[in-house]
């Protein structure tokens, strides 16, 4: 987007239907990636994006566990990275 010289970066994304999202007893967010939603609203501002990856649930192949990727670490200086959790479960706080 370009508004009078101010540029905003957008990402196209696939949303998971809210009815396919659960938090398990350990606090992990579990989603059903086959249940997509918000198909008419597929763009978000880059500033609102979080990088995640999905791990297949070993007990239920239709579900995946959401893991948040820490993107604030500079791997060229490993001393700065000590003590930083690289992956954490995504909380149940989804975009408003």
From TrEMBL:
Domain DUF4216 per the UniProt entry, residue ranges: 2-62
Pfam families with a match to the protein in the record: DUF4216
Name of the protein in question: DUF4216 domain-containing protein
Organism annotation: Citrus sinensis (Sweet orange)
Classification via InterPro entries: DUF4216
